[in-house]
Design brief:
By secondary structure, the protein is an alpha/beta fold. The protein contains 23 helices and 14 strands. The relative contact order is 0.11. It comes from Haloterrigena gelatinilytica.
Length: 578
Amino acid sequence: MSQQPEQRSPAEGKPDDLPSNEVTEGVERAPHRAMFRAMGYDDEDFDSPMIGVANPAADITPCNVHLDDVAGSAYDAVDEAGGMPIEFGTITISDAISMGTEGMKASLISREVIADSVELVAFGERMDGLVTIGGCDKNMPGMMMAAIRTDLPSVFLYGGSIMPGEHEGREITVQNLFEGVGAVADGEMSREELDEMERNACPGAGSCGGMFTANTMASISETIGFAPLGSSSPLAEDEDRYEVARESGELAVEAVEERRKPSDFLTKESFENAIALQVAVGGSTNAVLHLLAMAAEAGVDLDIEEFNEISARTPKIADLQPGGERVMKDLHEVGGVPVVLRELLEADLLHGDALTVTGETIAEGLERIDPPAIEDLDADFLNTVDEPIHERGAIRILTGNLAPDGAVIKITGEDHLHHEGPVRIFEEEENAMAYVQEGHVESGDVIGIRNEGPQGGPGMREMLGVTSAVAGQGHAEDVALFTDGRFSGATRGFSIGHVAPEAAVGGPIAALEDGDTITIDIDDHELSVDLTDEELEQRLEEHDLPEPNYTTGVLAKYGQMFGSAANGAVTNPGAKDE
């Protein structure tokens, strides 16, 4: 009689309730183990926690072109720390390359696809923990949303920022290129100079260098607890970036062993910390959308109006692009994001007892790494809370009869913007861009762009081309733009996005006509049109909602699923109900 195979049981030290046991343990899982053995895994791996390494590497964008190497360092560290690393891929969209085209409608959808795909792989393959990696803008929130949904012990790992380029002795980024397009159209720059800048603005791998969306969300990953302190600022091509990757892999194994899940450290206080950091450094308006989405996924009650409350008590203390001249490289050289966090904590503007994936509170983590104080630095782009750049943080939420559910602006210059004037309304980005490029824009103009919201676009396009063309013509502070779409993290000036409700669902922006008088008042948080409630209601009753731009395929599917920008434009049914 042949001997029966010995029943496998979890190894000592591997808890018997880990999800991976469902595919690695027991006689009935012999076929499953055979599949793993075909990929080089062995008995030691089966006795280890299974850590997914989610990698959106691609040749689509410099933000992600190097991520195989970053993922490799994290993978090796997981293995060396006693984990069973399993690398898998997902998609990315290059915001900068799709900008100004119909393809930009895919950008916000990619956040959802990334979250969906990582959640599916982690769920379907019964993983015990995750290292989620991000490069281009929507990678970061998509990866963190996936970790929230699975509630697996997870560490977020940023791919790092690009080095700034150089032109005529000054540092430049892709923002300068977008604004250069407007300057050429206005005759303020030659095509030859723009060509020279083009060839030098992006010298290698990494995400756009200013405090744009990628660096904002990476900085937030530290602050909210998903990443180790100091991990967001090392540049993409520095050895420090690979040290961070190794640290992240080791930490993921530790987090599984200690059962540190996102639900353990994502609290209302940690989201308030993230907002405080965002408004203090002049971070991207997109972080409003993404933090609302992450909070909805986590079941944390976060209202868009709370960005105003936190901005009112938290001064802006960092002068980085797009409002300033400095980039992430400069912040890294003086100590990175922890320098800002220390200043905010000492001013009692952070919740120091908020936990992180390391098991420490943020106050304990800052005490351990002991970043330098701003007052001790020779850094002309960082100010103390006592002597800030602006008394209030950089983000404002505007309401009024044109945006009853809110609209978002980032203050990059004048802090007391007020404007009243007639609007020129456009039904899509392309028409507005043509209007600007043809030289029609004058000081005092108001430009409105509608049908670019989450459902109307669909996909809520960023419109850096339009705002940069306006800025490049010298009108960053004296021409106002508003839209139910989004603006890039590289946008500066008088640009208001996320107008909600959007036109496609019958929001007040749908009722506007050329010549209507718009009032924008930053101090009063107002975005309104000079129409009575009755006039607005009458116009909306006579207004026919537009037909969907796409009726098949992924854009149609996600266009139908998106919720309001005021709640993060989420597609997850449970999160939409929050």
